[in-house]
UniProtKB/TrEMBL annotation, chain A:
Positions annotated as active site in the UniProt record: R324
Organism: Actinophytocola xanthii
Name of protein: Fumarate reductase/succinate dehydrogenase flavoprotein subunit
Classification via InterPro entries: FAD-dep_OxRdtase_2_FAD-bd, FAD/NAD-bd_sf, Fum_R/Succ_DH_flav-like_C_sf, Fum_Rdtase/Succ_DH_flav-like_C, SdhA/FrdA/AprA, Succ_DH/fumarate_Rdtase_cat_sf
Keyword Oxidoreductase recorded: yes
Domain Fumarate reductase/succinate dehydrogenase flavoprotein-like C-terminal, chain residue ranges per copy: 489-593
Binding locations of substrate: H251, T267, H390, R425
Transmembrane segments: none
Start and end residues of each FAD-dependent oxidoreductase 2 FAD-binding domain: 12-431
One MF term in the entry's GO annotations: steroid dehydrogenase activity, acting on the CH-CH group of donors
Lineage: Bacteria, Bacillati, Actinomycetota, Actinomycetes, Pseudonocardiales
PANTHER family: SUCCINATE DEHYDROGENASE 2 FLAVOPROTEIN SUBUNIT, SUCCINATE DEHYDROGENASE [UBIQUINONE] FLAVOPROTEIN SUBUNIT, MITOCHONDRIAL
Binding site for FAD: 17-22, 40-55, 230, 415, 430-431
Coiled coil region boundaries: 502-529
Pfam families xref list: FAD_binding_2, Succ_DH_flav_C
From TrEMBL, chain B:
Gene3D superfamilies (UniProt xref): 3.10.20.30, Alpha-helical ferredoxin (1.10.1060.10)
Homology family: Belongs to the succinate dehydrogenase/fumarate reductase iron-sulfur protein family.
Protein name: Succinate dehydrogenase/fumarate reductase iron-sulfur subunit
Keywords: 2Fe-2S, 4Fe-4S, Iron, Iron-sulfur, Metal-binding, Oxidoreductase
Biological pathway: Carbohydrate metabolism; tricarboxylic acid cycle
């Protein structure tokens, strides 16, 4: 029988997730005077953000003074093939510099330019050097900085209330399994401590989801075990909607060898700093893969590309730095056509391009990672790399300004939110997304609280039901076969990887959906041994249902979108189709998350002053004639 | 190229526990964490272990392998012979929660006791100017992934529970040094290091430096320079007096 003992904690705002977005949201909520909890599946300071390497995009213009928010906005929209939520892209481009500078006031130490400002590096899809960075460990610096800012706020609270946790408390190694509502609005969250297995209930009118992504549904991924789509699934079950779930970013450069590290990220900074991709014949193949929409923006010869690193005014950038979707597809094609490296990737060569000393200085963790995990000295040999599931562009449909979902009291920021990156995210735009929209979500939640006249109530039957569902995996089925959660997880990963991966076609996605239906049925019989104290088998059972629901959204949306764009490539519909550009695919589910439904919805047309930031000729590559009818360029004709 | 390896893994909780024997498959290129995961998926689904990134970047998977403090995800199986028995035990300096998972909250308490970065009040957003060579010293310390292997190793608290109260350990003494060397921090932390964080307990054995997976020169670059600053203060009566006066007038 279930032991329904539940510890209760009242809070004003509960932030689920302690990565960049979650920490920034919590800092903001606390600074707005709200009692705030941060709930994290891992220990404090371990979130997936620490793995972000390259940098944080913000048009500070420290290295090239021509940079400004308009250029950043344009790059972001191009990277996302104009499917982005333009308001989010606008806010992001405008606010990123202040958010980065703010980190300095928390104690961050970014690499510097000669005149002592924050240094900025080149990255795929960014016109100018734009990424604030610390070697190749920028994400770690951001997490540590915000972690330490939180400690500093707690120290202030200690001075004032004699209790470090009076206003801001971290609940480490604690997993939320359900959101609880009072009629249509948020009233709380049900969770368990990973170490003791005991249950807790957060009584809170406002929840910020900052749970990151869904990569653990795929076999080859750069994501950690935490990335099981929890926030996506919690949102769906609470009645919120997801958009753009068909767009999954495969980072072009993951490690491919040895098998046990397959998928681990190799930062784009390698290419930003001069590394080039080569196939087995030694050819720099990216010159053959510049797509029409980017013709004229990238170098066409090796000589021009090499000149660009030092003189950007007179050279175009190397196609090695095309947006990630383009590079990933190119690598995929090279390998498929038999020009791959021995272990099924291609070569990434920095050894022949920079002195060994310089490589170790600029890319210390890459040097370390290859040395220790693959016995490869990147200052002497090329790396072998191939695509790895890295990021989901899709996520909770939110109001751009407040980060609010359609459910009152439910907010989302960072990877779990959808829209900002359109069909493909530019490297470096994630870390900046976290701090821009993390702050906005914290602010949105605080404002929502101020507008409430009454706190929502939690019904006891909801709490009991959540507790029962949580311990269900300990009840072995009375008849038939119990299922092993690890087996189901492995089958899910294999099928998403093979059938809804980087290149998709109708029959395969359909097969994946059939497989998902089978796995969902079998998952009803998952059972685990042992006790509730730190039991990873049990934890996986609870994460599995999130992965299954979210994978269904990905597959269903991928089946519906009959075109190729950004992180969604259909072998049977290889071209981008302008009629699809302004269509969003919106996912929803019932409260038990038994199945997902996907419907089409038009995007809001872009505000005219933003539209006018682009040349008509470029817009014509993406927009339909009707959409451009009002453009001044057209009106003038 | 795969073979069967002998593993001994400590299983238990805060009351009792013992080493359990396992025979498990090992494939080319694998690390110890891969083997633990294989055990979870096949023989011991409830075997508790902490991990996140599997790339040596998050510092979650600290344990002791054949008695040496290491990251499970960065210890390749190829460093052992096929005949060798690999013994995995939890960190010794911290209380066990279950199996390989320990209660590392000591570290978070100590982190909270280090006064935070004190920004220069007169500088606004975007006005910070620092030279690369001046930030590099603190940057080295900020590479720390908080694996707490150095804390686990330091003899001052390993097997000396009684010292935990007065000693913050190499990780957090290094944090004090990091702030002390931050070009724009406005606080003086020298006396604090000695009096509040137990710098005096450290007798520069360098054991912490040896186990640091980030290869941070904790002893040479953080602890010894801090000790030098403390010594300078002590022997310079004018500086010492000045500090006393300053401290009396300033409230933190
Ligand atoms: S050098 Fe100091 S801090 Fe490091 S292990 Fe030795 S005594 Fe401990
Ligand atoms: S200083 Fe090194 S050993 Fe100590 S916690 Fe940091 S990374 Fe780990
Ligand atoms: S799992 Fe992150 S350091 Fe080992």
């Amino acid at each position: 029988m279930v032991q329904v003992q539940v510890e209760r904690f009242p809070y004003d705002v509960v932030v689920i997730g302690a990565g960049g977005a979650g920490l920034r949201a919590a800092i903001e909520a606390r600074e707005q005077g709200k009692r705030t909890a941060i709930v994290s599946k891992s220990l404090f300071g371990k979130a997936h953000t620490v793995m972000a390497e390259g940098g944080c995009a913000a048009s500070m213009g420290n290295v090239n003074a021509k940079d400004n928010w308009q250029v950043h906005f344009r790059d972001t929209m191009r990277g996302g093939k104009f499917l982005n939520n333009w308001r989010m892209a606008e806010l992001h481009a405008k606010e990123a510099p202040d958010r980065v500078w703010e980190l300095e006031t928390y104690g961050a130490l970014f690499d510097r330019t000669k005149d002592g400002k924050i240094s900025q590096r080149n990255f795929g899809g960014h016109t100018y050097p734009r990424l604030a960075h610390v070697g190749d460990r920028t994400g770690l610096e951001m997490i540590r900085t915000m972690q330490q800012k939180i400690v500093s706020l707690q120290q202030e609270d200690f001075e004032e209330y004699g209790d470090y946790e009076a206003m801001l408390k971290v609940f480490p190694e604690c997993t939320v399994t359900e959101l609880i509502k009072d009629n249509d609005r948020i009233a709380g969250a049900f969770a368990y401590w990973r170490d003791s297995g005991k249950f807790i209930l957060f009584e809170t009118p406002a929840i910020v989801l900052a749970t990151g992504g869904i990569g653990k549904s795929f076999k080859v991924t750069s994501n950690s075990w935490e990335y099981t789509g929890d926030g996506h699934a919690l949102a769906l079950r609470a009645g919120a909607t997801l958009i753009n779930m068909e767009f999954v970013q495969f980072h072009p450069t993951g490690m491919v060898w040895p098998p046990s590290v397959k998928g681990i990220l190799v930062t784009e900074g390698v290419r930003g700093d001069g590394g080039v991709l080569k196939n087995s014949t030694g050819e720099r193949f990216m010159f053959g893969y510049i797509p029409d929409v980017f013709k004229g923006q990238y170098a066409e010869t090796e000589q021009e590309a090499d000149g660009w690193y030092n003189d950007q005014d007179n050279h175009r950038r190397t196609p090695d730095l095309l947006p990630r979707d383009e590079v990933a597809r190119a690598i995929n094609t090279e390998v498929k056509e038999g020009r791959g490296s021995p272990h099924g990737g291609v070569f990434l060569d920095i050894a022949s391009r920079l002195p060994a000393e310089e490589i170790r200085r600029r890319l210390p963790s890459m040097y370390h990672q290859f040395k220790e995990l693959a016995d490869v000295d990147i200052t002497a040999q090329p790396m072998e790399v191939g695509p790895t599931c890295h990021y989901v562009m899709g996520g909770v449909e939110v109001d751009p300004d407040t980060a609010s979902s359609v459910v009152p009291g439910l907010f989302a920021a960072g990877e779990v939110a959808g829209g900002m990156h359109g069909s493909n995210r530019l490297g470096g735009n994630s870390l900046s997304d976290l701090i821009v929209f993390g702050r906005r979500a914290g602010l949105g939640a605080a404002q929502y609280l101020d507008s409430l006249d009454q706190r929502p109530k939690i019904s006891e039957s909801d709490v009991d039901a959540a507790a029962h569902r949580a311990v269900a995996p300990f009840d072995w089925p009375s008849e038939g076969q119990a299922e092993n959660p690890y087996t189901i997880h492995a089958e899910l990963q294999q099928s998403m990887n093979d059938l809804v991966g980087i290149i998709r076609k109708e029959e395969e996605v359909q097969q994946a959906l059939d497989k998902l239906a089978e796995l969902k049925e079998r998952a009803r019989f998952v059972a685990v041994e042992g006790r509730r104290e730190f039991n990873p088998g049990w934890h996986l059972c609870l994460d599995l249902r999130n992965m299954l629901l979210v994978s269904e959204c990905v597959a269903k949306a991928a089946l519906m979108r009959t075109e190729s764009r950004g992180g969604h490539t259909r072998d049977d519909y290889p071209a981008m189709d302008n009629r699809w550009r302004n269509k969003l695919l919106v996912c929803s589910s019932d409260e038990h998350g038994t199945s997902a439904e996907v419907v089409e919805k038009p995007q809001e047309p872009m505000r005219s002053d933003l539209l006018e930031l682009f040349e008509l000729a470029e817009l014509e590559k993406y927009f339909t004639d009707e959409e451009l009818a009002q453009h001044p360029g057209r009106v003038a004709q | 190229m795969s073979y069967k390896a002998n593993f001994k893994i400590w299983r238990g909780d805060d009351t009792s526990g013992e080493l359990h024997d396992f025979i498990v498959e090992v494939n080319e290129g694998e690390v110890v964490l891969d083997i633990i995961h294989r055990l979870q998926a096949t023989q011991a689904p409830d075997l508790a272990v902490r991990w996140n990134c599997k790339a040596g970047k998050c510092g979650s998977c600290s344990a002791e392998i054949n008695g040496k403090p290491r990251l499970l995800c960065m210890t390749r199986m190829s460093v052992f012979t096929e005949e060798e028995t690999v013994t995995v035990t939890p960190l010794r300096t911290f209380p066990v929660v279950r199996d390989l998972v320990t209660d590392v909250s000591y570290n978070y308490q100590k982190a909270r006791e280090v006064p935070s970065f004190a920004p220069p009040k007169e500088l606004g957003l975007g006005e910070y100017r620092m030279k690369q060579q001046d930030v590099e010293r603190s940057q080295e310390f900020r590479k720390c992934i908080e694996c707490f292997l150095c804390q686990n190793t330091c003899h001052v608290i390993r097997d000396h529970e009684e010292n935990k109260e007065n000693f913050s350990g190499p990780r957090f003494l290094m944090r004090v040094a990091e702030l002390e060397m931050h070009p724009l921090d406005t606080e003086d932390r020298v006396r604090e290091a000695q009096d509040e964080h137990g710098l005096g307990y450290c007798n520069i054995t360098k054991c912490c430096t040896e186990v640091c997976p980030e290869h941070i020169k904790i002893t040479d670059n953080a602890l010894i320079p801090m000790k030098e600053r403390v010594a300078d203060r002590k022997y310079d009566p004018i500086v010492w007096l000045g500090n006393q006066l300053f401290r009396r007038g300033s409230k933190r």
